[in-house]
Amino acid sequence: MTTHYLVLSALLFAIGAVGVLLRRNAIVVFMCVELMLNACNLAFVTFARQHGNLDGQLIAFFVMVVAAAEVVIGLAIIVMIFRTRRSASVDDANLLKY
Amino acid sequence: MGETITFWVLAVVSVAAALGLVFSRKAVYSALMLGVVMLSLAVLYAVQDAPFLAAVQIIVYTGAVMMLFLFVLMLVGVDSSDSLVETIRGQRFWAIVAGLGFAALLALAIGNVVFTPAVGVGQVTQAKGGNIPALAEMIFTRHVFAFEVTSALLITAALGAMVLAHRERVRPKATQRDLARARFSGPQPSPLPGPGTYALHNAIDMPALLPDGSVSAKSINRVLARHELEDDFTPTDPEKAAMIREALAKGEAEEREHGVEAEQPIQAKDAVIKEDGQ
Amino acid sequence: MPWLSILMAVPVLGAVGVACLPKGSHKPAKQLALLVSLVVLGLTVAMAVQFSPNGQRFQFTETHSWIPAFGVNYGLGVDGIALVLIALSAVLVPIVILASWHDTDGPAPDGRDDAPAPKRSAKTYFALLLVLEAMMIGVFAATDIFLFYVFFEAMLIPMYFMIGSYGGVQRSYAAVKFLLYSLFGGLLMLVAVIALYVVAEKNTFMFPELIGVVQDPTTQKWLFAGFFIAFAVKAPLWPFHTWLPDAAAQAPAGAAVLLVGVLDKVGTYGMLRFCLELFPDASKFFTPLVIVLSVVGIIYGAIVAIGQTDMKRLIAYTSISHFGFIALGVFAMTQNAQAGATLYMVNHGFSTGALFLIAGFLIHRRGSAQIADYGGVQKVAPLLAGAFLIAGLSGLALPGLSSFVSEFMVLIGTYERYAVPAIIGALGVILAAIYILWMYQRMMNGPTADSVKGFTDLNGREKWVVAPLIAAIIALGFFPKPVLDVINPAVDKTLDSAQVLDKQPASTAAEKKGAGQ
Amino acid sequence: MESPVEIVQHTGGAIGYSWLMIALPLLGAAILLLGGRRTDRWGHLLGVAMSLGAFAVAVASFVQLLALNPGERRRGIELFEFIPGMADLGVLIDPLSISFALLITGVGSLIHIYSIGYMSHDHDRRRFFAYLNLFVAAMLLLVLSDNYLGLFVGWEGVGLASYLLIGFWQFKPSAATAAKKAFVINRVGDFGLLIGIFTIWTTFGSLAFRDLGADVATQASEGTLTAIGLLLLVGACGKSAQLPLQAWLLDAMEGPTPVSALIHAATMVTAGVYLVVRSGAFFEAAPTAQLVVTIVGVATLLAGAIIGCAKDDIKKGLAGSTMSQIGYMMLGAGLGPAGYAFAIGHLITHGFFKANMFLGAGSVMHAMNDEVDMRRYGALFPVMKVTAVTFVIGYLAIIGFPLLSGYYTKEGIIETAMHHNPVLGWLAVLGAGLTGFYMSRMVFMTFFGKKRWADDAHPHESPAVMTVPLIILSIGSIGLGAFLVLGNRFATFLAPAVGTPAEMPEPHVFGVGPAALATLALVAAGAAFAWMRYGAAEVPVTAPRGSFLTTFARRDLYGDALNESLFMRPGQWLTRLSVFFDNRGIDGLVNGLAAGIGGTSGRLRRVQTGYVRSYALSIFFGAAVVVGALLYVGNM
User: Fold this and answer.
1) Interface predicted TM-score (ipTM) of this complex, two decimals
2) Residue B103 and residue B98: Cα distance in Å, rounded?
3) Quick one: which of A94, C31, C409, D77 is 20 to 30 A from B75 by CA?
């Protein structure tokens, strides 16, 4: 069963990554990042169960904490950018280039 | 046996939801899709005897973080759908190639590892009397520093968000006298008509009438009005439907004419700032 | 009496003094610079007098440890070859200062001394010149290889600024090209210096201790290559020469003289001192290559010189041909050839220096460096034309003038060991006659071009510049013995430590004559 | 077969001060050049004084040398060490060098005096006398030096002086080109001599004549000796305008006439002959080299004569004849010890009568306000009596009129040549005939026949300061030949310096041998033919279009055209090619490298698109690579 879980987690991670690459709306990109984080949590929990060692679950717990902090800051930035630029598209902020 | 069934059901649901998250046009739909994924994962945690995590996932993650997303979506304009046409040349193609490649690689990696049957955390949790005490004992003995650091992290995150979102008051707070002066120098001295003042109806979606009898575009919520028109929930009385359509058209005309800021309902405070700013 | 340190300190202090003069004091800056350089000249002469040619090899040595961790010490010392080159630079600098009296001034009416405010600050120019002199003396006096390398690179900076901010129209291109070329060479040498330090495992950079230490032939070859390429770029051997014409053409006349007269000599001096003595077997291995390069340089430099239209570029190409002779002499590894090469370094400094300075006077009068813009100067300024002729003739190694003695010794020394390169090298003598006399004819003879009518002859200052150079050229031409007596023992020791067995491969009659001596 | 005697170190007496001969004119040149305008007034007198001073020292040394018995007549004086360990400059006084010195200073002084008159109107006459003194000093250094290096210094010094004097009137572009051409072609000759000196040094380890005596043949292989001989010959040809390198002599006539007289008739052009005679030891040890010398001599002899026949410019005609007479001397020098005495004898007599004729031509030009074309002369005899008489004496001497000086020395050369190699002998006789023709042509066109003067020309006799040297020179060209040749007086005098031949035939007053009579006949025929064409008949003022042979001669046997196409044009092409290669090739490479680096960095810059998503893509690719690597390493 463990391989199934891991493959699922890999699949979710890949979809999240593709989502980050394809979507232009900052918030959707942010959600895809959250999806990738969750995929990792799933893998951690699976390994915890596999090795019979609670560390996996502990790590997953910490990941959630960090994810929360990250979301707060990320969304604050998105709001701030939106307020100044009136657009939440990721591609609009491309002044720092050649 | 039950576990495999739940796994396969939830796996399919979560993958579909993930795909939906990535490919849906509207941001709100993506948010909901993410919620679905999170919930299915929570169940999977539970199945993998991590009840505490399942609970935290549902309460904290889905409950709080997802809702945060929805809030920001609302702020940013829930209807801001973006077209799926790709602007960067070759981005889509290479993104998919990379995604597939990565997934294949991981699958390959996982594939060629032969797993012994899972040991399961049962034995450890019994010794400590349940999953939560075991986790608690670990957190507060071996990982107490990490725990304290995460608490500091959360506080700073909260503080950070406030600092980021805070807008320094550039001018003194508008006093009562200023507000009065602004109102009478502004285009709209009298308070805006309440939804029902000359309202023929007390429904939220019905536009109020201006003293000169014309429909007030600002008195309705454009998003709701648009939904009604699109999904044909307009009131049966054609005359009322016409009023909604008229208000909506007038709002969009004004929006085109004045540029974006006409979208939001004008607060007096902003009017003051705008005037002084000129 | 730490002669060498004083010799380096005085110009540096002078430079600081010149730089700190109040703003806008151009004339006093020049006078102070001239005074300082004359003091240095006096000190050099005093030092040279005390130098005993047949005494032990390095004299006036000073060794203070500088970076004990690497065994780098502030080692100075002078042997015959280095002394002669230091004397050359000490003589050239005051002459150059005197000659570039108006170089930094705006388009002053020619000849008159009260020129209007200069376009660019004369103070920095003369300060740079003095700093350059200090480094020139340093590079020849250093017996510690690391110190030599430091001076080798440091010399580029003042010259870069002198070309870069005081040069002609394309000065920045020329200055950058000069700097990149030399740095490229210098970095290779840095690698070789470090490798040498590591391979020798003697925890010292002192040159006398490192002679013949590196035994294994392959490392010797690599280290030799590192050193040699740096020196080949510096003293332009054939493929690495394209920076010299640009730098010399764009630099002001005084800077060009120092660039060609002394800076490039560091390259050939380096070959003679470091390449030959530190890596004897590698030198012998690479000798055929170097001989081919130098002979190509001689012929190629001369031919391209004939085709030039710009006066200073032509003189630059002639000095590429002369450097071919010097390198040929160094690597022919016979007593006559190497003594001739060293003497050639000195003579070349005087003859090409005189050519450049007089070209500078002409450009100062006419404003353009194109040969076609002149014609019939001889009628209008006979003294100027006469000096130009003597300098040109010493350029084409006319007997009775200095370059002939050295060129003769180089060629006869090379002929003793390699006949064909000497013969091809001797062809350069004919090409030299063509390019010098053709230039002289187009500029000085024929009907006086109207643009040249307003020329004034050499004024007092310019006479003081040209007279010592011409005197040196004629004196060294007729009586080179005193200089050769200083050079010969030093060359002898160089050849010993370069393990050259048959220094004088002449036939039996030589022994008979030698015995009779 | 007696070889030259040992050189003895000498101190004291006139010979002890013989180095003054070089020093005095050198000092004079230095004073006049450095003095500048201040020395203008008395400059020329100083020049003449210095030249006469040198002549006095030469005569004193000559007298002291005669006083010594023949065995020790080679005196060496040590001066100073030029290049330590290689060569020390010194003076060698022996019969050969003293006879040259006498010729140079004697004729030189006469020409100095003559130039006072000739150059009287030229405002930088001072510079002219400075260069003349410089020339005399360099020529004396050449002939008096006791080693090859000193000889070489004198050799190039003479080349420099000729460059300065040919190009004396610098404002004339033709003079400047002629001067440059002379110097460059001399330099080609010097290149040969330089390589010869290197070979001598490498094989014998010394450059002093003292060590290169007759035993030279034993110390080196035949091959090297021939090589040395040929290289010295190349040097000699360069300086004496012999065949391969003769193009510069005719252009050298651009210089003032005294220059042509002194340098291109009497002294400099004979330096080549001196070199061949002085290095006799090498040539005797290498017969092939000697043969080549004789061949070159005869070839030049004929070429010079042919050119002489076609030239209308009097100075160019005389230059052609000089070339041919030096051909005779080279022929004589190539015959070994037997010919040396006659070669040097002819050299000295030629010095007198050729200088005499050149100065005569100079005074004619002076009178006809610098007209050089003989077709503009005619019937000058009555008007310029002294010049005409001296010129005719010179003419008779050069064609070998019996009893005059040219007859004895040229006859001697032809006799020895006939004895040595008949083919060369008869060619020499043919040359003598041609000489008879063109010299007579020159005399008849100039002094006899009808008047063809330009309308503004009113010739008059030159002032005394010019005619006195003419008279002295003509006296010399009458008696000198007989004095030297009869009784082998000059041969015995030269013996200690150059050795003596196995047997010395006793020359007789009037040669009756077959060769002598044939020469006389041919000369007479030539003169008669010339009288018929130019004396009696009407000489057209403009040169008629000649047959193929005349244009061939007029174009100096296409010597210049040959040089042009063989060396000049390819040279210019090569120069343009290498300048192009240098600018485009090497510089192109360097600048290309720089541009290349600039280009790549420009393209690399474009990777920074500014879009967050493309950066995310590259990060993702990076992650994929890392996973792949881990996988690869994991199960490797």
Assistant:
1) 0.73
2) 8
3) A94
